[in-house]
Amino acid sequence: MKQPVSDTNPYTRGIAQFVSALSYESIPSEVTARIKLLILDALGCGIFGAGLEWSRILQQRLAVLDATQVSVVWGTGIRLSAPHAALVNGTQVQGFELDDMHHMGIMHTGSVVLPALFAIAETRPGMSGRDFLTAAVAGYEVGPRVGICMNPWHLGQGWHSDATCGTFAAAAGAARGLKLDAGKTVHALGIAGTQAAGLMAAQYGSMVKRMHAGRAAQSGLYAAFLADAGYTGIVNVFESDYGGFCTTFSRSTNRFDLPQLTADFGSVWQTMDVRLKFYACVGSTHATLDAVREMRAERPFRCEEVVNIIVYGSQVTVDKVGWPYVPQGLASAQFNLAYCVATLLLEGQCFVDQFTDAKLTDPARIALASKVSVRHDPAILAQGPEYRQMVRVEVHLADGSRMERALVVSRDKEKFASDSEVVAKFENLAAHILPRERVEQLRDAVLGMEKLPDAALPARLMAI
Question: Under 8 Å CB-to-CB from 124, ≥6 apart: which residues?
C-alpha cells in the first residue's frame, strides 16, 4: 500500500514517517534507559491492578466470552485474545491512579502503549527486546504530542485525553511493533482516531473511568492490525476541517496547535518528560500535596489547628478536582483534591493504603476535607498551558498565621525519580500479586530488555 501523498495531511504523514523510520540505534541512550524504567513502573501498576474489583469484573466476564487464550492478563492465570487482553491490561495499569503522567500532554502513556505492544509481542513471535523498546518509544513520543496539540481545553470541555489522544499513542506503538511502513501507519492513525471516545464525567464515582485507557490500547491495537491487513483509515485524521480529530474534539479551530504534532521529532524526546506518581491519586492533585507536605515540614501543624486551606489553580484544576467532597466511591476520592489533602494531613501519606471503603466515609476525614476549597485564578493559565497544574496554596491556622506556597509540576529532567525509587515502587506493587522470586525475575528482564531475544518474556513472567 502506497502512502497517501497530499498536502492535506502533512502532520498525519509526518507522524507516520517518524514512527516507521524509528530505529533502536537512533534513540539516545538516556531515552532507552528511561523507557525501561517507565515500562517497569507501568507493569507494577498493572500487576497491582489485577486484584481490583473493576479489573476482576472485566477479567471474569471476558474469560466467559473469549476462549482464544493467547495473551496474558497481567497478574492472573487468565489468557484472552490480544485485543481483550489489551483492554484488561490497560484498565489494570490505570486502575488505581498510580501510573505515569505526561503533564503537558495530559496522558498516562504507559497504560495505552504497553498493553497493545505486549499483545503484539505475544501473538507475533520474533520481536526482540530492542524492537519492543523502539516501538514503546514511538508510542511515548506520539501520544504526548497529540495531547500537547489539543491543549488543556480538550480536557476542560469534558473529554478524557487518555481515551481520545491515547488511541494514537497505542496505534503508533503497535504500528512500529508490527513494522508497518509509513503508508500503513497513516491508515493505522486514521483507524485509531475514529475510535476515540471517553467522557470525564466518569470520574464521579463510576468504574468505567478505569477502562478508558484499556479501551484506547485496544483501539490502537485494532488500528495497527487492520492497517497491516490493508484496511484503510482517515488519511488526514488530524487535519480534516470536517470530522477530523482536532476540529471535532476542540470547541474552536484556535484551540489546537497542529505543528505540535511533529515538533522536534528526533531532537526533543517527550519520553523524558513522562513523570511517575508516588501518590495514588490524579496528577492534578500532586502539586497541592507537595506544597502541603513542604509547608508542614517547615512547621508541623496539627490537623485541629487548620481553619481552612485555599488552593488557587486553573479552571481545569477547579473543574477536575475542586468540587466539595462527597463519598461516591474510590474513583471519586482519587479525583477529589480536598479528600487527598485531608488524607495527607491525617496519615502523612496518600498511597494505596489510604483509599479504602472505610476511609472514604470517615467523619474526621470528611470534616477536614470540608475545610479545603479550590478557587480559579485566571492569572495561572494566562502564563501558558504548561502552567495548567500550577497551584498557589494558602493554609490558615487557628492562631491567625498563614502559610503560602506556589508550586508547578516540574518538567526538569533532573527531577525524575531515582532508579532505586522506581524499583522500590515496582517491587512494592508487584509483590501484592506475584511471589518475590518472580518479581525479581520480571524486574531484571525489563531492566535488561535490550538483551532479550524474545520480548514476550515479561508477559509470561506476569502470569500466575
Answer: 177, 178
pTM of the model: 0.88
Is 381:292 a contact under the CB 8 Å cutoff? no
Decide: 63 and 80 in contact? Cβ < 8 Å: yes
Read off the amino acid at residue 239: E
Q: H-type helices in 250-399, by residue range?
A: 286-298, 315-321, 330-334, 337-347, 357-360, 363-369, 378-381
* Structural domains of the chain, ranges and CATH numbers in brackets: 10-276+418-461 (1.10.4100.10), 283-407 (3.30.1330.120)
Alpha-carbon distance of 395 to 381, in angstroms, equals 22
CA distances from 459 to 40, 329, 336 (A): 12, 31, 34
Could you report the per-residue pLDDT of 88-136, keeping only the tens digit for each? 999 999 999 899 999 889 999 999 999 999 999 999 999 999 999 999 9
Question: DSSP string of 80-118?
Answer: E-HHHHHHHHHHHHTTTS-S-EETTTTB-HHHHHHHHHH
C-alpha cell at 363: 467523619
Residue 134 to residues 117, 319, 423, Cα–Cα distance (Å): 11, 37, 22
Lowest mean pLDDT among 42-46, 359-363, 404-408, 416-420: 404-408
Region of 361 on the Ramachandran plot (φ > 0 left; ψ -120 to 50 alpha; else beta)? alpha
End-to-end CA distance of the chain: 41
Looking only at the bridges linking them, the beta strands covering 101-102 and 79-80 are unpaired
Residue 326 has pLDDT above 50, yes or no: yes
